[in-house]
Write a structure and sequence with these properties.
This protein is about 70% helix and about 0% strand. The chain is flat. The chain has about 525 residues and is mostly helical. One of its GO terms (biological process) is regulation of asymmetric cell division. This is Protein inscuteable. It comes from Apaloderma vittatum. InterPro entries: ARM-like, ARM-type_fold, Armadillo, Insc_C, INSC_LBD, INSC_LBD_sf, Inscuteable.
Length: about 525
């Protein structure tokens, strides 16, 4: 159903299938009740306590979550109707259409019980959608009452058009509802002097951002970034800074959020927070998280980087200090992730980090297993080391901080849980440590230290054994390059077969040889 563009806004957290069924069962059974009652509420008075509406017992944010779940069900049903229609399953099409009709009416009734000031435009879309759903049901009912193939063929075209229109009206109504609710929350944030009300509104806003990029775009377009930075500039709301910054980090995953950040001098505000020692570590950590988000190398929009470069030295100084003084692994991860992203900008960032003794601080932190406690943290450190290793001065820092030993340990990085995200992080750690070794081995002292620590046998093992590198091609390439660099310094450290297969041929030939190796070859 090409016109139904809802998956991004209907994003739901992955949960166990039985748990999802239990949650959806309430909605489904209510829907069947509504079928019996012809979608008419039992009570006429809106304030009657016995009104059978799901949302009566929930807060506004819970109601929105419920609305999103109901919308997700409708979206799924519409897609299934299109599939059944394609196969001319008329009885199924009709029963599913009746169900969608009831779901739509239930959703509108539920929403209207907890919203107070919905717009005339929204009421118009509600009426359009309900009318079109009724028309849709009438069409499908006529189809199950005839067996004339010619009539059914003509009706199928009409039903397809009606289905497309229902999907369009439904998508537009959901967009209006989400925009309306985002506006209400932002109005509370902007107008309230109460910490309690502001905290509740920010919390609800954050939960909405977790529903996907589409909602983040809506919030950004409605001025969410502006309102949140306004909070971050008021000392009376200091206790709310961490959750405000966390919400900002979520919104800034989309381009609209980044544009708003640039307009309100958000980077200057973040710099002020990071460099203000009177703020809590939690506030500094969340500010670092925003920096990490807006400097992500994966972002395709970089208009904000010019203002970032103006404040880069102050930001780097604050982030290095946060890494050094981090009281937990989470704080270190956020600060080091921001540093890692910044090192992708240009060598100037790496030069500043070198002057700030960042290499020494990071290497020391890696020896504390309570601080650098996950492959994700080691991935950030490995990234920083790899990007800084382009500088000639980096070699002496590595030697002094026992960094070659750390790089050797990183070549053995393995995931204890087998979790796919963790396995991917371990691959990145192996790859980046090999890249760092390759770059630093131009220095004879580093190469000598690596050879003494038996880096060559480990690199050979990673090249020859696919399971050691989790079948990662990027790890293989990095290890082949590092091995060739070290082989120049110590040709006697390789057996003849290893030299003939892994060092002497062209890199691409060695790569193809290793990727085609069976495990038993090792």
């Amino acid at each position: 159903l090409p016109s139904l563009s809802l998956p991004s806004s209907m994003h739901l957290i992955q949960v166990d299938s039985v748990q999802r069924w239990m949650e959806d069962l309430k909605l489904m059974t209510d829907c069947e009740c509504m079928c019996i009652l012809q979608s008419k509420p039992i009570s006429i008075e809106k304030d009657e306590q016995n009104e059978l509406i799901l949302s009566s017992q929930y807060s506004t944010c819970d109601n929105l979550q419920l609305l999103l779940k109901r919308a997700w069900i409708i979206s799924t049903e519409l897609t299934r109707i299109a599939q059944k229609l394609e196969r001319n399953r008329w009885q199924r099409v009709h029963s599913m259409t009746v169900r969608v009709n009831c779901h739509v009416r239930s959703m509108i009734n539920e929403y209207n019980t907890f919203t107070r000031n919905s717009s005339e435009e929204m009421h118009q879309f509600e009426k359009l959608l309900v009318d079109k759903c009724s028309e849709f049901t009438a069409f499908t009912e006529r189809c199950i009452q005839t067996e004339d193939e010619q009539i059914l063929k003509t009706m199928k075209s009409c039903i397809n058009e009606t289905l497309t229109t229902v999907a369009q009206y439904f998508g537009q109504l959901i967009e209006l509802i989400l925009t309306h609710e985002a506006q209400n929350l932002l109005r509370q944030i902007e107008l309230s002097d109460s910490i309690y009300i502001t905290e509740s509104a920010i919390s609800s806003l954050f939960r909405l951002t977790q529903e996907g990029a589409h909602l983040c775009r809506i919030i950004a377009k409605e001025g969410g970034v502006v309102a949140l930075f306004k909070i971050c500039r008021q000392d009376c709301f200091r206790c709310l800074f961490p959750q405000t910054l966390r919400t900002l980090a979520s919104i800034c995953c989309v381009e609209e959020g980044m544009h708003q950040l640039e307009k309100v001098d958000g980077i200057l505000c973040l710099t002020d927070i990071l460099t203000d020692n009177s703020h809590s570590e939690a506030t500094h950590a969340e500010a670092a998280a925003v920096i990490a988000q807006i400097t992500s190398p994966h972002l395709t929009f970089t208009q904000h980087l010019s203002s970032f470069l103006e404040n880069m030295e102050e930001i780097l100084t604050a982030l290095v200090k946060l890494c050094q003084e981090a009281s937990s692994g989470e704080v270190f991860l956020l600060a080091s992730a921001a540093l890692a992203n910044i090192t992708f900008f240009d060598t100037m960032a790496c030069e500043i980090l070198l002057q700030l003794n960042a290499m020494k601080i990071l290497l020391a932190a890696c020896s504390d297993k309570h601080i650098v406690d996950t492959p994700y943290s080691r991935d950030q450190v490995a990234t920083i080391l790899a990007n800084m290793s382009v500088l000639d001065q980096c070699a002496s820092e590595i030697i002094q901080g026992n960094g070659v030993q750390l790089l050797m340990e990183m070549l053995f990085e393995r995931s204890p849980s087998g979790n796919s995200a963790e396995v991917a992080a371990c691959e990145r750690v192996q790859q980046k440590s090999a890249v760092t070794l390759a770059r630093l081995s131009r220095d004879p002292e580093v190469a000598d230290a690596a050879i003494k620590l038996s880096c060559i046998p480990r690199l050979i093992k990673l090249c020859r054994s696919p399971t050691e590198r989790n079948n990662s091609d990027s790890v293989l390439v990095a290890c082949l390059v590092a091995l060739r660099r070290l082989a120049v310094m110590s040709p006697d450290g390789l057996e003849d077969l290893d030299f003939q297969q892994l060092v002497k041929p062209r890199l691409v030939d060695s790569f193809l040889l290793c990727t085609n190796m069976e495990e038993s070859f090792v």
